[in-house]
Amino acid sequence: MSELGTETAFEVFAKAKALEAQGRDVVHLHIGAPDFETPAHIVEAGIRALRDGYHKYTPAKGLLELREAVCADILRRRGAEVHPDDVLIAPGGKPTMFYAMLMFGEPGAEILYPNPGFPIYESMIKWSGATPVPIELREDEGFGFDAEKVLAKITPATRLLIVNTPANPTGGIVQRAQLDALVAGLERHPHVCVLCDEIYSRQLYDGEEHVSILQYPELRERAILLDGWSKTYAMTGWRLGYGVWPRDLVAHAERIQINSVSCANAATQVAAIAALEGPQDAVDTMLAAFDERRKIIHAELNDIPGFSCVMPKGAFYAFPNTRGTGISSRELERRFLNDAGVACLSGASFGASGEGYMRFSYANSVANIREGLRRVRDCLQPA
Ligand SMILES: Cc1ncc(COP(=O)(O)O)c(C=O)c1O
Fold first, then answer.
1. Which residues contact 244 (CB under 8 A, 6 or more apart)?
2. Dihedral sign for Cα atoms in the order 263, 266, 268, 274
């Protein structure tokens, strides 16, 4: 059990709540969930589903109508044809990475993962017994991804390569040229599968296009796509996501699901059909709000002495370099929460390469973002 890591966002959240229970005012800039409500027509569809009797197990892979809606959405947005048999609906985006790691990881196996990156990757790789091999994401490369460097890390023991675009915590994206180069290079390594975490696929700015692993038919037999409803439709608490699996692997993933959670919540699955097939204007409205806040947080962070921040291209996180403060990331996390009443996350929580950075979420109002960063500035430069 000591190999199993965690997501410190949940720990910071608990500490912030404890401070609030003592009467302290805390600005929450640690959040990995859109601060908006789930759009009303989706909520209504969920309520109707409960009234209509969606009270029982669904097929383990999920309702066929939902898997068909997922395929139609993938065709519309990614231009890729997927068969509903290859889609596994799960309670959140996380189970797809959990299942993939259980499937591919074992002592002696190597799994490549982004660092800094979503902490569950490294945690689950280690727990499976496999060796985590970090792909360092560098600020001076815009936290993008250099395919040649990634390919150079592949060994005969490499089983799986994890890609995350747009990325948590950096806000970086993988450009088409890099994904092209990666896929071309993977031809020389037919033993390597790819898990592409595209949970932020709808949160892209400045006209950037989302490039999906499913757009490479030559990789279809060894690519797993992870996406879901949490971030796009402000549905983190509903717990629903999906994986698109290679034909040879989907039955194994289904069996892990049957051995663990059986299936995703039935009424939530019906609500998710409404999300995919209904109006998308709420998604656009949320994106416009995130974009406005992104520009504000970027400017405000760059105004803090000792901080410098590249412009995030996707997701809803800013990841400033804080080395100029001369204070470690963990100490900054502690001071900002305890002394300034601002919950944000140490970059080191996202892997060793995140030391010297902090993650600020802009899934909060402009007023709260401004107030939080004012407190951070004052905390570093007391009057
Ligand atoms: C990169 C990444 N992948 C997956 C997830 C998990 O999504 P879900 O809440 O749908 O399980 C998150 C959540 O923060 C994330 O940041």
1. 70, 74, 82, 86, 87, 214, 224, 225
2. positive
Amino acid at 126: K
pTM over the 0.90 mark: yes
Q: Say if ligand 1 is within 6 A of residue 307 CB.
A: no
145/294 Cα distance (integer angstroms): 21
Q: Which atom of ligand 1 is nearest to the CA of 228?
A: 10
pLDDT per residue as tens digits for the range 76-130? 999 999 999 999 999 999 999 999 999 999 999 999 999 999 999 999 999 999 9
Interatomic CA distance for residues 308 and 375, integer angstroms: 17
Can you say how many angstroms the Cα of residue 95 is from the centroid of all Cα atoms in its chain?
12
Q: Is 236 in the pocket of ligand 1 (CB under 6 A)?
A: yes
Identify the three-state secondary structure at position 102.
helix
Nearest-atom number in ligand 1 for the CA of 236 is 9
Q: CB neighbours (10 Å) of residue 14?
A: 9
Q: Are 204 and 237 in contact (CB under 8 A)?
A: no
